[in-house]
């Protein structure tokens, strides 16, 4: 396969880069996809400005990186394209409106046995200010830990569930309630606190504020304290890239080595985005 010379420009944090001169609505050559994938392994947050994507084109581009994974909350899925999650404070397409819904640190869907490798978010309506997305570099955060903490967490297991986060979001009025029957599917799952990225081979912290509730074998308080300490460390400014959305940016991120959170904004403005989520493998 011929090599494609992708135009990649670093952003103001090593985690992120802008990819220029690529139209994601097109059926891109395999060499272009390979170049994007290679850039993605260097910069886990890639920004593609100025895109115009129909749901079909968004899905087609996303599938170039693997099979897609739906979301457990069904009333925020696109009615015609259920592999698209609709994040819209206007309830675009008849979905449940989401007001500041993802405003907590998380990596997508870690409450499932097989969490996704990546997500691709297309922001077609964004507020003129705020409503940013922050990304934390979990590889750099792990590498910067002192030896004692690394020794303490290497080989330990985190317990993840969606249930507690969902109840907190319902209470805050940012997510519609689910029945007990619907919530029964959110059993606890176990993932390593430190995972090795299957493509780069680098170790990264794999806990998050949203869904990691306990550390296996530790008392509740002790586990909570350790998780809070790790999360506070990973979200120090030095590890965080802030993405300030321009209309029609596409941002794709690697869930295996980043966390993210949305920031709040003036809800009188529309913020509407479509997200696809690419299947991963069991973290190890
Ligand atoms: C997400 O959590 O996947 C979306 C983040 C955002 O709305 O900025």
Q: Explain this structure to me?
A:
- The chain has 284 residues and is α+β, with helices and mostly antiparallel strands.
- The protein has one domain (7-279): Clavaminate synthase-like (Double-stranded beta-helix), CATH 3.60.130.
- It is 22% helix and 25% strand.
- It has helices at residues 30-42, 55-63, 138-143, 147-153, 163-171, 180-183, 220-234, and strands at 7-10, 16-20, 45-48, 85-88, 118-125, 133-137, 157-160, 189-192, 194-196, 203-205, 212-215, 240-243, 249-254, 258-262, 272-278.
- The strands form four sheets. A seven-stranded mixed sheet has the order 1-2-3-13-5-15-4, with helices on one face.
- The longest helix has 15 residues, at 220-234.
- The structure holds succinic acid.
Defining traits:
single chain, 284 residues, alpha+beta, Double-stranded beta-helix, seven-stranded mixed β-sheet, three-stranded antiparallel β-sheet, 7 helices, 15 strands, globular, binds succinic acid
């Amino acid at each position: 396969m011929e090599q494609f010379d992708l135009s990649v420009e670093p952003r103001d944090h090593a985690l992120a880069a802008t990819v220029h001169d690529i139209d994601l609505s097109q059926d891109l050559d395999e060499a272009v996809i390979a170049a994007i994938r290679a850039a993605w392994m260097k910069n886990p947050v890639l920004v593609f400005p100025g895109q115009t994507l129909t749901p079909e084109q968004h899905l087609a581009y996303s599938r170039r990186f693997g099979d897609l994974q739906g979301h457990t909350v069904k009333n925020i899925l696109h009615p015609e394209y259920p592999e698209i999650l609709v994040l819209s404070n206007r309830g675009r397409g008849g979905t449940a409106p989401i007001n500041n819904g993802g405003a907590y640190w998380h990596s997508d869907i870690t409450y499932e046995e097989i969490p996704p490798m990546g997500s691709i978010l297309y922001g077609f309506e964004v507020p003129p200010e705020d409503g940013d997305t922050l990304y934390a570099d979990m590889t750099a955060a792990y590498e910067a830990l002192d030896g004692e903490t690394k020794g303490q967490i290497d080989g330990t297991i985190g317990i993840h569930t969606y249930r507690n986060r969902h109840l907190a979001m319902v209470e805050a009025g940012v997510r519609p309630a689910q029945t007990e029957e619907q919530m029964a599917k959110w059993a606890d799952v176990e993932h390593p606190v430190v995972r090795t990225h299957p493509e780069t081979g680098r170790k990264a912290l794999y806990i998050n504020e949203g869904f990691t509730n306990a550390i296996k074998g530790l008392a509740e308080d002790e586990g909570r304290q350790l998780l809070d300490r790790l999360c506070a460390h990973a979200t120090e400014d030095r590890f965080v890239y802030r993405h300030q959305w321009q209309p029609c940016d596409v941002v794709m991120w690697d869930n295996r080595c980043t966390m993210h959170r949305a920031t709040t904004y003036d809800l009188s403005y529309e913020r509407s985005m479509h997200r696809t989520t690419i299947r991963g493998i069991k973290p190890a």
